[in-house]
Amino acid sequence: MLRSVEQRRTGGSRQEDPRVTGLRSAVSRLRRQLASHPAEFSDRSIAEEELAALDAMVADGNAEIPRLRRSLLLIAGAIGSVSALAPGLREVRDAVELFEPSPRG
Known about the structure:
single chain, mainly alpha
């Protein structure tokens, strides 16, 4: 008997890091919000490119903290003045911060 696609997909796969899942979800939401935002602004393409880069980094397992931070700064600089996108940007920032090493105490 044939197994369903879902069974094959989950059968031998390893569990994804919850930080990766969270960051990819936050990036996806912000990308959708940005795409549906009616106003044009000069740095929109920079934000779109960096969101795509963030998603690709974590999808490939290439989540280097300095590169994550750099992308976050570029995104924030590009859309920081668009208040409607602030909650989505905050969500991405919070997700990136989860990759930071925990402080020793």
